[in-house]
Known about the structure:
With about 80 residues, the protein is mainly β. It contains no helices and five strands.
Amino acid sequence: HDRLIKPKEFHEGVKVLLYNSRLRFFPKNFKSRWKRPYVVKHVSPYGALNVQNMEGTKSFKVNRHKLKPYLAGGFDWQSSSIIIS
């Protein structure tokens, strides 16, 4: 199991999603909240990253555990159709 888990590697210029870690008062209604894509501006050692929004107006430092890679590609419905006869 552990050998199948790939480590998260972030490089400058990569798009990432930021986890919204607000305190929730009703845990039964828990939903995973990932905020819009950000761009990695600088990667420092020991897991701290400087990220900025897509417009480039706001930049802040965040822990790498609150980020996940942003997969921008959509699903191509035309090439994945299956005909059952």
